[in-house]
Write a structure and sequence with these properties.
By secondary structure, this protein is α/β, with parallel strands linked by helices. 36% of the residues lie in helices and 14% in strands.
Length: 370
C-alpha cells in the first residue's frame, strides 16, 4: 500500500524497526497533518477555535468507531489508560458482596496500579498467577467466583505475546453478573476488533503502539446500557451535557461516554492520532494482520521451537513474537543491535513486532542474526 511504502521510506534511515508493541512509528505526514488540524484556525483567523479543535477530536472518535464497528457516542478520549481506568473505578457502585476485582499478574502494571487505588474504596484485588495459561477458559471459570464484581481482561499480554479469548471471557463474566474491563493497548491496530460482538462493559486502549499515533491519545469505550448508571467522580466542563452552558450551579452528565472526559482536553495528540487511525482504516486491519502473520511466520520457522515464548498458533498470539535463545540470547541481541534492529527485551525474552513498515528483505536480514 502507499502508506506502507511511505513508512518504509522513513524506517530505511532508522534500521529495522520492530518496536510497534512499545512505540509505533509516526507516519511521515504526521507533523504536517497535526499542525494543519491544530494551527489552521489561528493562521486563518476564521471560525471559533474550540469548534475547530472539537471537530478534530470528533474525527478521532469517528475513526475509532469505524475501526471497532461501534458508535461514536460510546467512545471518550482519554489522556492515558491509567486515567481511564481510574475514572471507571470511581464511577461504579458495586454491591457489597461483589467488591473483588479479578486480574492477572501478566496484565500491564500501569492499569494494575490504577486498580490498586480502588482498595481505599473497599475493593479487593485478586490476581491470577503469572504461571497460569489465561487463554484457557478453565482458569476463568474457576477464578470468577461469586464475590468478583469486575474483571480485567488484557486482549494481548505484553510479556508473552499471548492473545486471550476475550469474547468467551466477557460472555462468561456477563452470565455471572460481573462487569468486564478489556485492555486493547497491545491489539488495537494489529488485530481485528469488533466491539459489536464482544460482551464487554468497558474497553480501554491507546494509539501510541501499533497505531503509531503517539502518546496522549488514549480512549475509553463504554457499553451504552451501562453509561447512564456510571457517575464518574473526576469531572470537568467537558463531562457536561453542554460544556458551553457555563452555569456554575448546574452540572449534568453528558448522555454518552463523554461524561468520562473531564476538564479542558488536550488537542494536538488527538490530531496526530486521528491521522494515524485514518491510515489504519485505509489499509485495513485484516491486511495489516495478514502482513504481520506472514513476516512473523518467517521468523518462527527460522528459530528453534524452544526459543519461541509466544504461542505458535495464529489465533493464540498477538502481533509480537517473544524469543529466548537461552545461553545464546546475549550474542543474538548483540548481532541484532549491530544490524541496527530496534527491539526490546523483557523478563521472558526479546520482543519483535513486524508491522507495515517491514518487508521480507528486512526479516531475511534479521533471521541471519539467529
Amino acid at each position: 500500500s502507499v502508506v506502507s511504502e511511505t513508512v518504509n521510506g522513513l524506517t530505511e534511515r532508522q534500521g529495522i524497526y520492530l518496536l510497534s508493541h512499545s512505540v509505533g512509528l509516526p507516519l511521515p505526514n504526521a507533523e504536517r497533518a497535526a499542525a494543519k488540524a491544530f494551527w489552521t484556525p489561528w493562521e486563518t483567523g476564521n471560525g471559533d477555535i474550540w469548534q475547530h479543535w472539537l471537530g478534530t477530536i470528533e474525527v478521532f472518535r469517528a475513526e475509532l468507531a469505524m475501526l471497532f464497528n461501534t458508535h461514536i457516542g460510546n467512545i471518550c478520549p482519554q489522556s492515558s489508560l491509567s486515567s481511564a481506568v481510574g475514572k471507571v473505578i470511581y464511577s461504579l457502585d458495586l454491591a457489597a458482596d461483589k467488591k473483588v476485582i479479578l486480574l492477572s499478574e501478566e496484565d500491564f502494571p500501569s492499569i494494575a496500579f490504577a486498580l490498586q487505588k480502588g482498595v481505599s474504596s473497599g475493593y479487593t484485588l485478586k490476581f491470577i498467577d503469572a504461571g497460569a495459561d489465561t487463554s484457557d477458559m478453565t482458569i476463568w471459570r474457576s477464578e470468577m467466583t461469586e464475590d468478583v464484581g469486575l474483571v480485567l481482561v488484557t486482549h494481548v499480554q505484553s510479556n508473552n505475546g499471548r492473545q486471550l479469548p476475550v469474547q468467551q471471557i466477557t460472555d462468561l463474566a456477563r452470565s455471572r453478573q460481573i462487569l468486564s474491563l478489556v485492555d486493547v493497548a497491545q491489539s488495537v491496530g494489529i488485530l481485528p476488533i469488533n466491539l459489536a460482538q464482544w460482551q464487554a462493559d468497558f474497553v480501554v486502549g491507546s494509539c501510541v503502539k501499533w497505531i503509531g499515533g503517539g502518546p496522549g491519545a488514549a480512549f475509553l469505550w463504554v457499553d451504552s446500557p451501562l453509561t447512564e448508571h456510571c457517575q464518574p467522580q473526576s469531572v470537568g466542563w467537558f463531562s457536561h451535557q453542554d460544556p458551553f452552558e457555563f452555569d456554575i450551579h448546574h452540572f449534568r452528565y453528558a448522555d454518552d461516554a463523554l461524561r468520562f472526559w473531564g476538564g479542558t482536553p488536550t488537542v494536538y495528540p488527538f490530531a496526530v492520532a486521528a491521522n494515524s487511525v485514518q491510515a489504519i482504516n485505509a489499509i485495513g486491519v485484516n491486511n495489516i494482520r495478514q502482513n504481520n502473520l506472514e513476516l512473523s511466520d518467517q521468523i518462527i520457522q527460522a528459530v528453534p521451537s524452544e526459543a519461541l515464548i509466544s504461542p505458535v498458533q495464529e489465533d493464540l498470539r498477538g502481533g509480537t513474537l517473544v524469543l529466548d535463545f537461552g545461553r545464546r540470547q546475549d550474542a543474538v541481541m548483540r548481532r541484532l543491535i549491530n544490524l541496527n534492529v530496534h527491539f526490546d527485551c523483557r523478563v521472558k525474552g526479546m520482543r519483535l513486532s513486524p508491522h507495515t513498515c517491514n518487508n521480507e528483505d528486512q526479516i531475511g536480514a534479521l533471521i541471519k542474526c539467529f
